[in-house]
Amino acid sequence: MDKKIQEWADTVQSNGCRIESITVLNEIRKPDSSLLFALIDTKVYDPQGHRLPNIVFIRGHACVIVPRVYNTETHEYAYLMVRQRRIGSGEDSLEFPAGMLDYESDNPPGVATKELFEETGLTIAESQLFSLCKTKLYSSVGGSDEGIYYYGCHIHLDNAQYKSLHNRLRKNDHENERITVKLVTREEACEQTRSTQVLLGLYLFENYLQTHSS
Questions:
Q1: Residue 75: how many CB atoms within 10 A of its CB?
Q2: What one-character DSSP code corresponds to residue 51?
Q3: pTM
Q4: Taking CA 106 as the corner, what is the angle to CA 104 and CA 112, rounded to the nearest 5 degrees?
Q5: Measuring CA to CA, how many Å separate 105 from each of 16, 114, 160, 180?
Q6: Residue 159 belongs to what H/E stretch?
Q7: What is the CATH number of domain 62-211?
Q8: Within 10 Å of residue 104's Cβ, how many Cβ atoms?
Q9: Structural domain spans, the chain
Q10: pLDDT digits over 97-109, tens only?
């Protein structure tokens, strides 16, 4: 059984459910043959013996990074975000840097720092990250296994470094990504985004600041 499907099965069983069968209906694999997505038909029963809905979309887990950047010369703060055209809506979407864990589900912080570099060109150490939530949060638990780890980080840059980030272009031809890096205020982020990822990330980050202010 593929690792992504096995991780879903392990999670379901750890919550007291019994899996009677798993049938893979369809799967999409990357060029290296690793599993990207799968659609599975299952027979799963809760601890009381009731059968759960049978179809599960296997994505695997992901991470989101909420970086707040401080300009050490002008003393202004901004959130480091990215704009990219998204296939789900066709929109030029404003989001926080993020990525799928794939087969590195045992190292979410490592994936987070890698995704931050790939999408923005900014390098940070894993030690600069802090968890915004004690555990991963499920994006659509009614039909998908995807859980998302949210991380925050504080980044201090001089004025030249700060300005060099805004409107920086990044691309990944292998994944058909064209990204524009943005530095935006909280108000701008709320006005310009239609992503729950952003609104939840802002909430978690601000809650972290409040609970760790002393």
A1: 7
A2: B
A3: 0.93
A4: 60
A5: 22, 14, 36, 27
A6: helix 159-165
A7: 3.90.79.10
A8: 15
A9: 3-58, 62-211
A10: 999 999 888 999 9
Distances, alpha carbon 155 to alpha carbons 13, 26, 80, 91, 111, in Å: 40, 42, 9, 29, 18
CB 129 within 8 A of CB 112: yes
**Residue 207 in tokens:** 């809650």
The encoded tokens of residue 213 equal: 């202010």
* DSSP three-state, residue 205: helix
Retrieve residue 13's tokens: 């069983």
pLDDT per residue as tens digits for the range 60-91: 999 999 999 999 999 999 999 999 999 899 99
How far apart are alpha carbons 22 and 127 in whole angstroms?
39
Residue with tokens 């296939």: 87
Nearest to 121 by CA among 67, 193, 76: 67
Residues in the chain: 214
**3-state class (DSSP) for residue 125:** coil
CB neighbour class for 175 (10 Å; exposed up to 12, middle 13-18, buried from 19): exposed
